Amino acid sequence: MTQPESAAPDRRLFGLCLLTLAWSVLVLQAGGFTTSIQAGMAFLDWPLSNGSINPPGWLTEIDKFAEHSHRLAATGLGLLCVVIAVAHRLRETRTVVRRAAYALVGLVVLQGMLGGLRVLLDQLNIGGDGNVKAAAFAVGHAVNAQLTLALLAFIALAHSAAWHRAGRGEDPAPFRAGRWAAGLTLAVIVGGAVMRQGRFTAWVTSPDQGLFIPSVGDGVLWWVNLAHRGGALLAASAVLFFAYRLARHGYPFLRWASLVGLLGLQVLLGILSLRLYDNPHVRTVHLVVGAALFSSLCAAVALAHRRARTVAA
Predict the structure, then answer these.
(1) Same domain as 199, residue 75
(2) What integer pLDDT is reported at residue 233 of this predicted model?
(3) Domain termination residue (choose one: 164, 199, 217)
(4) Please, are residues 233 and 188 in contact by the beta-carbon 8 Å criterion?
(5) Are residues 102 and 220 in the same domain?
(6) In a domain? residue 21
(7) What is the pLDDT of residue 98?
(8) Is 223 strand, coil or helix?
(9) Is residue 194 located within the same domain as residue 124?
(10) pLDDT tens per residue, range 153-173
(11) SS3 49
(12) C-alpha separations of 179 from 97, 159, 174, 275, 305 in Å
């Protein structure tokens, strides 16, 4: 039995998802700051930190505080996601939404495993001349965090009034533009994760070359940075076109304007990251806003897809 399309949104599940989204932003911020200051190996063990949940020095030493607070916040997020899954088992009748809640727990468990492997397989633990294994798991950890947040945003959207009103006289055409925008944005996120986790980041640009051409580094380092910046411009164009399609086809102002606003803020933070390359807070906020943009974009695409299916039916 499936829930009728006209059923009212479940405010309790919606509120629980919003609370978890807010908490996930804290987790992402803590993780991004840890990476920005290169404190991911402040503790060589996992899941405990120096064998304890209250390791000495974590409240006074910035690297230990960043890493351990991230671990504690991530544990809290995992518990909240379990609560979401149980609550959907008890209250949600739509199969797709209920399965999405179960998948959310799976992604959170995977996220913890990727983070743990990033630590346990680090060069400091296993020795060797390179750190490819740890970097690979770190990239997976970073990208999976974005996917987890996007799935959580979809689950929250499924309990909103907008989702239940979908298909009432609005054109589904923007869905195709949204898929391209989401795909390109995810590709930029992957590139950014490779840069941050592989320490391929060349933040400095020279005044005569402007903001686009990296002026530090050569070889792979130079090309990875150039590709990330070029990809960001391409993805930004796709997001703007998607927002334009939403506006043209009568979607509410806040739905497409929020994408434009987040995109503008993300571009500004990207520029500041190049100019203030020694400031870890700017790079961390750049990461968080990028996640907010991607999650909002995925939610908008899911809503456009629902309208497309509703109109087709």
Answers:
(1) no
(2) 94
(3) 164
(4) no
(5) no
(6) yes
(7) 97
(8) helix
(9) no
(10) 999 999 998 888 765 445 557
(11) strand
(12) 20, 22, 9, 32, 9
Q: Taking residues 200-217, what's their average pLDDT? A: 61
Distance separating alpha carbons of residues 163 and 15, to the nearest angstrom: 15
Tally of CA atoms within 13 A in the half-sphere of 125 that contains its CB: 16
What tokens does 115 get? 């983070």
Do 202 and 108 share a domain, yes or no? no
Report the alpha-carbon distance of residue 309 to residue 313 in Å, rounded: 6
Asked if pLDDT for residue 210 goes beyond 80, the answer is no
DSSP string over 234-297: HHHHHHHHHHHHHHHTT--HHHHHHHHHHHHHHHHHHHHHHHTTT-HHHHHHHHHHHHHHHHHH
How many distinct structural domains can be found in the chain? Answer: 2
Domain boundary among 99, 132, 164: 164
Name which residue leads in pLDDT, 304 or 19: 19
108-149 tens-digit pLDDT: 999 999 999 999 999 999 988 788 899 999 999 999 999 999
Question: How many residues are given for the chain?
Answer: 313
Give residue 265's pLDDT.
97
Backbone angles phi, psi at 165, to 5 degrees: -95, 0
47: preceding bond cis by omega (within 30 degrees): yes
Q: Would you call 265 exposed, middle or buried from its count of C-beta atoms within 10 A (0-12, 13-18, 19+)? A: middle
Strand partners for 270: none
Q: Taking the chain, what is the end-to-end CA distance rounded to the nearest angstrom?
A: 19
Between 230 and 274, the more confident residue is 230
Count CB neighbours of 51 within 10 A.
8
175 with 160, same domain? no
312: domain range?
Answer: 170-313
pLDDT given for residue 2 in this prediction: 42
Torsion sign, CA atoms 212, 215, 219, 224: negative
Is 2 within the bounds of a domain? no
Same domain membership, residue 241 and residue 181: yes
Do both 236 and 115 map to the same domain?
no
CB 313 within 8 Å of CB 255: no
Judge if 174 and 160 occupy the same domain: no
Task: Give the chain's mean pLDDT.
Answer: 88
Instruction: Provide the CB-side half-sphere exposure for 189 (13 A, CA).
Output: 24
